[in-house]
C-alpha cells in the first residue's frame, strides 16, 4: 500500500516562498497528486493537482519530478493568512481505490 | 451551489446512545466520502461511495459504525452504541469523479460523547 510522508510542521515569514514536500515512493501509474489546505474548524480545501512536471495556478505551484516519487507544493510570497495545515493526497481520479492522505504539515507564518 | 451540507454541526451525546450524522453532497457529484479527524489520528478516511454504492469501508473502525447512501443526494453515518473515543470531527466530502479528483468538503460535525 502506498504511503505518503510529509514534515509535521514548518515555520516561515511573511513575503517568503514556502516549499512543502511530500514523499510517495509507491505511487501508482494512474495516481494523481493533490494538495489541500485546512484552516481550524473548517474542512480541507483543494489547492492544486498534478500528474507530472509542473502545474501552476493563481495560488500555488506543484513540482513533480520525473520519477513521481515526491512532490513539492510551492506557495509564493506567503502571508499570515496562509497559516494552515497542508495535506497531500495520492489517488486515481477515475476511481476511489487507494486514496492515501499524508498526515499533514502545519505551516506557521510569522510577521 | 450550497456546497456539501452536513447536519448537525455539533452533537453532544452520552455514551451508549445512537448517533446519526447526515450529509447532502453537491448535486451531480457521484462520489461521497466520510472522514474522521482527531488530534491524535489526524484525518482518516472511513468509507466512500461511488454512484451510491459503498466501494471501500476498510476505514470504518468497528461494527458500531455503519454508513448508508439511499440515493444520490443523501448519506448517513451512524454510530451505535457511541463511546467517548468516538469524539471527533466527522467530515463528509463529495467529488465529480474518483477520490483522486477534487474533493469538496462539508463544514464537519463535531461529535462529543460523554
**Helix percentage range of chain A:** under 10%
Q: What overall form of chain A do the CA principal axes indicate?
A: globular
How is the main sheet of chain B built?
Answer: 7 strands, mixed
First-to-last CA distance of chain B: 36 Å
Q: Kindly report the average pLDDT value of chain A.
A: 91
Count of strand segments of chain A = 10
TL;DR?
The complex is a heterodimer of chains A (111) and B (114). Chain A has 111 residues and is mainly beta. Chain A has no helices and ten strands.
List keywords for this structure.
heterodimer, A: 111 residues, mainly beta, six-stranded mixed sheet, four-stranded antiparallel sheet, 10 strands, globular, B: 114 residues, seven-stranded mixed sheet, 0% helix, 54% strand
Walkthrough of the structure:
The complex is a heterodimer of chains A (111) and B (114). With 111 residues, chain A is an all-beta fold. Chain A has strands at residues 9-13, 18-23, 31-38, 45-50, 53-56, 61-64, 70-75, 84-92, 100-101, 105-110. In chain A, strands 1, 3, 4, 8, 9 and 10 form a 6-stranded mixed beta sheet that branches. In chain A, strands 2-7-6-5 form a 4-stranded antiparallel beta sheet, with no helix packed on it. The radius of gyration of chain A is 13 Å and the shape is globular. Chain B is an all-beta fold and 114 residues long. In chain B, 0% of the residues lie in helices and 54% in strands. Chain B has strands at residues 5-7, 10-13, 19-24, 31-38, 42-50, 53-56, 65-71, 74-79, 88-95, 104-105, 109-113. In chain B, strands 2, 4, 5, 6, 9, 10 and 11 form a 7-stranded mixed beta sheet that branches. A 4-stranded antiparallel beta sheet of chain B has the order 1-3-8-7, with no helix packed on it. In chain B, a hairpin with a 2-residue loop joins β5 (42-50) and β6. Chain B is globular. The mean pLDDT of chain B is 93. Chain A binds chain B through residues 31-32, 34, 36, 41-46, 49, 87, 89-97, 99, 101, 103-104, and chain B through 4, 31, 42-43, 45, 48, 50, 55-56, 91, 93, 97-108.
